């Protein structure tokens, strides 16, 4: 049988997908990073050696292995080595700190924890030991190595839970989202087919590989047989040289990335910032319609935006051949394998790409309705053509640069400050970030007004991750509340403090 992206998508496991692609195009590159090139065959052979090294350390099928590593070729090798073994892996975003990492390690009962050592000024090894993590090992440059002949057979089915991803959701503690190889393959397949990519494309990974987008994107590379440039640390304009050097045709990640590329384009109007670029694509945060039109007009490329979440990495995606109106104002259409139902305005989902639930059985029971549809907590509507329009969120969550941030977690910390009587944390529209974190404080009488720097220093001392720190502070005489339970009316705060996007 001749393999195609559609037949490859039928692979039972991620490892089967790797081996089938390696047999098809062994010498073609899959990952590019600075001067390094990893081919599809090298991905298979080197991952097997890493798997053997892990096996020698005691990692077995079903062993829970957490890893907190940057976007590097070594990270992909370690992840696929764990997939080869059939271990359960729990990726953690590199900028998570004690609160999130400690919780994830405890809840997942991780037996091993791979860290990068000292990375970008933070000692991950010391943090892991401080948290009492088990089986700590560094996996930045050097990876475990062994003889593949010692390995047991690879996993034969892809419906067992082998992935635990973490999302803040609407609670103060993260939620462990349970995925299978098949759910990740389904998500990546939907993304790849929606974007109409080909083996001639060159992609890019400027986001954390530990994000759910990591396997989503890698599945796309395996299906279509094209490479992607990996960025350990993404910053513009520094990264532009790598985009140009490797001839990237598809870039993006989220609304923040579109804005950054557009800002660079505006530095040199009329000169294409990345000559080979033809498509910006992503999701994870609201996209203002005017941003779509600016990108198309000023950069001369197409922009397709989609809707996804940790629980279902690809729900809808814009089609590059769709109308400008649909691409600007909707999140695209769902693939045939994704069912969307709107119940009282809430978006509900059912399909193979949807997660199996959460580590906490009570959270799973609350998240799925009696027909097996996932309650997303997001509000939306379907147009007559089947396009999804997002209209709001039931969940009190802020989406900043594609990452979910729990407002309650920040509020709980703020109310511990002696100069804070009550606090409300809201997301405000922001062109660069999608949303910015704004803290609105009610202070006790005769208290000196707090400054943003004081609030940020206090939250840092409490161990809050950098990406959750407020970027804006407002102090009010009294928070608006309803007349029954005196619940803070956050929509009034959003109305008051939102500003038109520039």
From TrEMBL:
Instruction: Tell me if Glycoprotein is a UniProt keyword of this record.
Output: no
- Output this protein's name: Class I adenylate-forming enzyme family protein
Keywords recorded for this protein, A-Z: Ligase
The record's listing under InterPro entries reads: AMP-bd_C, AMP-bd_C_sf, AMP-binding_CS, AMP-dep_synth/lig_dom, ANL_N_sf
What are the AMP-dependent synthetase/ligase domain coordinates in residue numbering? Answer: 19-359
Q: Which residue intervals define the domain AMP-binding enzyme C-terminal in the entry?
A: 409-482
Source organism = Streptomyces cinerochromogenes
Q: Which SUPFAM superfamilies match?
A: Acetyl-CoA synthetase-like (SSF56801)
Q: What protein family does this chain belong to?
A: Belongs to the ATP-dependent AMP-binding enzyme family.
């Amino acid at each position: 049988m001749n393999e195609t992206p559609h037949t490859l998508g039928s692979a039972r496991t991620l490892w089967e997908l790797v081996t089938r692609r390696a047999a098809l195009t062994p010498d073609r590159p899959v990952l590019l990073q600075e001067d390094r090139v990893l081919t599809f065959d090298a991905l298979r052979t080197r991952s097997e050696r890493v798997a053997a090294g892990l096996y020698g350390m005691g990692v077995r099928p079903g062993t829970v292995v957490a890893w907190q590593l940057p976007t590097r070729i070594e990270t992909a090798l370690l992840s696929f080595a764990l997939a080869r073994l059939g271990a359960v892996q729990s990726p953690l975003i590199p900028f998570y700190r004690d609160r999130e990492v400690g919780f994830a390690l405890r809840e997942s009962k991780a037996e091993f924890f791979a860290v990068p050592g000292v990375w970008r000024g933070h000692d991950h090894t010391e943090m892991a030991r401080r948290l009492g993590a088990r089986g700590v090992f560094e996996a930045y440059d050097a990876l475990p190595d062994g003889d593949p002949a010692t390995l047991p057979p690879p996993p034969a089915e892809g419906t067992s839970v082998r992935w635990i991803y973490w999302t803040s959701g609407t609670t103060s503690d993260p939620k462990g989202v349970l995925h299978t190889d098949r759910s990740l393959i389904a998500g990546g397949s939907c993304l790849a087919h929606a974007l109409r990519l080909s083996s001639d494309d060159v992609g890019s990974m400027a986001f954390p590989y530990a994000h759910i987008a990591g396997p989503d994107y890698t599945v796309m590379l395996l299906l279509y047989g094209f490479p992607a440039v990996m960025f350990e640390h993404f910053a513009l304009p520094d990264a532009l040289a790598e985009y140009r050097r490797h001839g990237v045709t598809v870039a993006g990640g989220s609304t923040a990335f579109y804005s950054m590329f557009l800002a660079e384009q505006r530095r040199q109007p009329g000169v294409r910032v990345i000559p080979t670029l033809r498509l910006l694509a992503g999701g994870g945060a609201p996209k203002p319609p005017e941003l779509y039109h600016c990108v198309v007009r000023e950069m001369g490329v197409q922009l397709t935006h989609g809707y996804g979440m940790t629980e279902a990495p690809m729900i809808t995606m814009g089609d590059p051949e769709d109308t400008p109106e649909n691409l600007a104002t909707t999140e695209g259409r769902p693939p045939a394998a994704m069912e969307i139902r709107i119940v009282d305005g809430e978006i509900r989902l059912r399909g193979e790409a949807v997660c199996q639930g959460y580590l906490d059985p009570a959270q799973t029971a609350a998240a799925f309705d009696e027909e097996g549809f996932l309650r997303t907590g997001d509000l939306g509507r379907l147009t007559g053509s089947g396009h999804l329009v997002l209209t709001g969120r039931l969940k009190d969550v802020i989406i900043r640069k594609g990452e979910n941030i729990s407002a309650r977690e920040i509020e709980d910390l703020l109310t511990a400050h002696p100069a804070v009587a009550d606090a409300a944390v809201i997301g405000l529209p922001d062109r660069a970030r999608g949303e910015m974190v704004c803290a609105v404080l009610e202070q006790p009488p005769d208290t000196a007004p707090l400054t943003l720097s004081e609030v940020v220093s206090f939250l840092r001392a409490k161990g809050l991750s950098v990406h959750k720190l407020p970027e804006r502070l407002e102090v009010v005489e009294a928070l608006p509340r309803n007349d029954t339970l005196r619940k803070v009316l956050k929509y009034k705060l959003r109305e008051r403090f939102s500003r038109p996007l520039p």
